[in-house]
Amino acid sequence: MSILNGVIKRESPIPLYYQLKEIILSELTSNRLVSGDYLPTENELMAYYQISRATVRQAMSELVNEGYLSRQKGKGTFVSKPKITQQSINRVETYQEKMRKIGKNAGTKVVYCDIIMPSATICQALSLSKQHKVIRLVRIRLVDEEPIVVAETYMPYNVCSFVLEHDLESESLYAILSENEKTRIVTAKRTIEAVLASESAAKMLEITEGDALQVIKTIALNKENIVIEYTTAKYRGDRNLFIVETQVEV
Amino acid sequence: MSILNGVIKRESPIPLYYQLKEIILSELTSNRLVSGDYLPTENELMAYYQISRATVRQAMSELVNEGYLSRQKGKGTFVSKPKITQQSINRVETYQEKMRKIGKNAGTKVVYCDIIMPSATICQALSLSKQHKVIRLVRIRLVDEEPIVVAETYMPYNVCSFVLEHDLESESLYAILSENEKTRIVTAKRTIEAVLASESAAKMLEITEGDALQVIKTIALNKENIVIEYTTAKYRGDRNLFIVETQVEV
Asked: Please, which residues bridge with residue B69 across strands?
């Protein structure tokens, strides 16, 4: 067992579990504990700090919920991989470009690429009537072979059919769309929300149903304000952190 | 039972659960089902659409995970309240201002407002050494009496002590900080991530441990680039949706 640095102060008004949590966090901050390292067991922590099992559990489960630690059945609790820090959620860039900037080796797996009749939700997002066909493109994005996001994209078939002639595992969709003035994206509306992973999303992302997901929805328009793309991207909460560029208006 | 509009097409390549999900979503989009309405029971949906329990459950649990529906033990599944759509996550504004813009009645409850010795994480965020005291301010923000976010703010005591003389339930922290040129916020760094609610956060937000949370961390600086505020805000995933203003750079 690697003993943790830091002591618990019983006379402090700060709850014991919170002190233990801070001790572990400071081991992470200082890199004394790094990705993949196992933590001492519950019993070891109880004995070493003379605290109850409930206290140890509360500290550990908060750190698991917040993504710092991961549990593996029968093996214990270990330090999670650092989240992939994505720059500038407010910039609409190609995925390859984003990953290149942070020095990551990115890959794309196309799960579906077909022509379908749109559902009501998709019609509404694309401002399209029900009779129009749409292209459905579902892609899993990988970083170092690990799935980090599944993106479900819908585009009006009538203007975007040429996209289907391209290899969407190696080419950038935005680069393809910009070949044609009519489909070139110039503005986008984007929302972000936190949800729990459904069974199907969990399967594609190799996580567990009920894990945290960051859902980013983008409606992208051409210069005539016609919707060209509607994408729902589900990012693994445990692997992604987004930076928001801010403006102060106090 | 209110029968749903829409039919399931067995000959379609789209999975049955997904068709049912889309039927329910289109009832929500068209406002035929609104916040608080109960859905037909599992048995009713199975009988009406001639589909299996597993199919109904998959559709319903995806809609629950995504925040559209909520379950109440012994009572069934009903339509969730619409999420509070917060404009411009990339703007650093006062909370009151944000809520006023969307016509919401906002309230603030101060949980802690005290002076503490900072933990390693807080020292790092505030670029402060361990010997400096900090102000800890934990506030629950309410909308129409319902908690929607808990914000944990830390400020260096030496420059911000005057904040403690104010009523932080009625006054805006950013307005108070801007009274003094040394503490006026002019820039901020912000990150956003999705996590699961810990027991303590769940309790304050009146949700269940393991529910989805949107965590927004802000490090705010004065005009000399000195950190004045470090805040971790935990937003209920089921009640908040953020709009991101975007710039296209394809």
From this structure: B79
B235 in reach of chain A (CB within 8 A): yes
The residue with tokens 């269940």 is B208
Chain B residues close to A189, C-beta within 8 Å: 243, 246
The structure tokens listed for A32 are 């004394």
Of the candidates A169, A248, A200, which has an alpha carbon nearest to the alpha carbon of residue B57? Answer: A200
Nearest-10 crossing angle of helices A53-65, A16-29:
50
Give residue A111's pLDDT.
Answer: 94
Report the chain A residue with the minimal C-alpha distance to residue B58: A199
Best mutation target, A57, A63, A119, A174, to test chain B (most B CBs within 10 A): A119
Distance CA A112, CA A108 (A): 12
- Report the run of H or E that residue B72 belongs to, with start and end: strand B69-72
Residue A137, number of CB atoms within 10 A of its CB? 22
Whether residue A120 contacts residue A188, with contact meaning beta carbons closer than 8 Å, is answered with no
- Which A residues 168-187 touch B at CB under 8 Å? 174-175, 177-178, 184-187
Nearest CA in chain A to B22: A119
Assess B101–A contact: CB distance below 8 Å, yes or no: no
Separation in Å, CA B176 to CA A86, B56, B168, B229, B249: 33, 52, 9, 12, 37
Distance from CA of B26 to the nearest CA of A (A): 6
Name the pairing type of β-strands B187-196 and B212-221: antiparallel
How many residue contacts between A and B have a Cβ separation below 8 Å?
207
- What are the pLDDT digits (tens) for A88-119? 666 666 777 777 777 777 889 999 999 998 88
| B145's tokens | 């009496």
What amino acid is encoded at A20 in this protein? Answer: L
Residues, chain A: 250
Helix axes B53-65, B16-29, angle to 10 degrees: 50
Q: Count how many residues are written for chain B.
A: 250
Would the CB atoms of A244 and B120 count as touching at under 8 Å? no
Q: Which A residues in the span 130-159 are in contact with B, Cβ-Cβ below 8 Å? A: none
CB contact under 8 A, B90 and A246: yes
The reported pLDDT for the residue numbered A249 is 61
pLDDT digits (tens, 9 = 90+) for A164-210: 999 999 888 999 999 999 999 998 888 899 999 998 899 999 999 99
Number of alpha helices (DSSP H) and beta strands (DSSP E) in chain B:
8, 12
Q: Which residues in chain A have Cβ-Cβ distances shorter than 8 Å to B198?
A: 58, 61-62, 65-66
pLDDT tens digits along B77-103: 999 887 777 656 666 667 777 777 777
